[in-house]
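Predict fold of Galactose mutarotase; 189 aa.
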Amino acid sequence: MTEVRKEVFGQMPQEQGGGVVEKFTLKSDSLKVEILSLGCIISALEVKGSGGEFTDVVLGFDTLEGYTRKHPFFGAVVGRVANRIAKGRFSLDGKEYQLFLNNGPNSLHGGAKGFDKVLWSPQVLPNGVCFFRLSPDGEEGYPGDLRVWVTYTLSGSELAINYRAQASRATPVSLTNHAYFNLAGQVSP
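Predicted 3D structure, encoded as tokens:
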């Protein structure tokens, strides 16, 4: 059986849009995961060891301030397009698009304000949480409205992430979670 708990994690600074950041904790007998409404970030993933103790195996921060500063996308959902788009340009259906450049001459992980830097709307499920956001036409230079759902479910020792997107017109989409793992635990060198 999965326990789902919700609490306030912090308040986004006004210069970054403001709003309350919530933390959702999914817990089973062998696994515990904490997910933020900011960027659908996995802020902790604790696995039960052979001695019965839980160890956090993903890198992240204990406070919201860590996530609102520049960091290497710890635990976040990145997009509209994960990875780099060279020169921030692509052609689709005979039209050229120019994206925001945030990685030298390239667009990286959705641009200056990609999916990792925005608040998502959560819905608690019996064994998880589903996050939703509407990326409007023209956001970061991408065409079309894009409705996105990211669902985290926990069943026993299995954490599943499901991505679903619906576009109003042709647009590139490539979503992923950007968690960094240290299987020896966060406190290990």
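The chain has one domain: 3-79+113-181.
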